[in-house]
Amino acid sequence: EASRRVEQQLAAGGGGGGAGGGPSVGIIMGSDSDLPTMKAAAEVLEEFGVECEVTVVSAHRTPERMFEYARSAHQRGIRAIIAGAGGAAHLPGMVAAMTPLPVIGVPVKPAGAHLDGVDALLSIVQMPRGVPVATVAIGNAANAGLLAVRILATADPALQQRMLDYQQGMTQTVLGKAARLEE
Ligand code: RP5
Question: Which pTM value belongs to this model?
Answer without folding.
Answer: 0.91
